[in-house]
Amino acid sequence: MNIMLASVTERTREIGIRRAIGAKRKQIILQFLIETVVLSTTGGLTGVSLGLLVPLMITWFSGMPTVVTVEGVLLPLLISAGIGIIFGLYPARHAANVDPIVALRHE
After folding, report:
1. Smallest Cα–Cα separation from 8: which of 26, 24, 32, 25?
2. Using an 8 Å Cβ cutoff, are 12 and 44 in contact?
């Protein structure tokens, strides 16, 4: 959430320009939610990749068979995307509620 709040603060002027030329609040919210989901899913993919590497290394070094299921790969990805949506709602709503006039004055 902190990263997205910082992103909103840094991009206040951009948000103001978009609102001034006619962007709707829903469009601003959608933009920030998509960014949040992409960031959290990228983190989830990184975690899953490392999580797949560990059983592979265990099998390779010890000869013990390991099992990786589809659920064990998809569930963490869905959880990370869900967490991204939940914790991205506040920054997205904050961005959508920026007053265009105040945002355009922001430097």
Report:
1. 32
2. no
For residue 48, which amino acid is it? V
For CA atoms 96, 90, 10, 102, the dihedral sign is positive
The SS3 of residue 91 is helix
Which of 2, 5, 45, 28 lies closest to 100, judged by CA? 28
Contacts for 89 with CB less than 8 Å, ≥ 6 apart: 33
Residue spans of the domains in the chain: they are 2-105
pLDDT tens column, 30-59: 999 999 999 999 999 999 999 999 999 999
Which residues lie below 8 Å from residue 4, measured CB to CB, with a gap of 6+?
A: 32, 35, 36, 39, 87, 88, 91, 92
Q: What's the whole-model pTM score?
A: 0.80
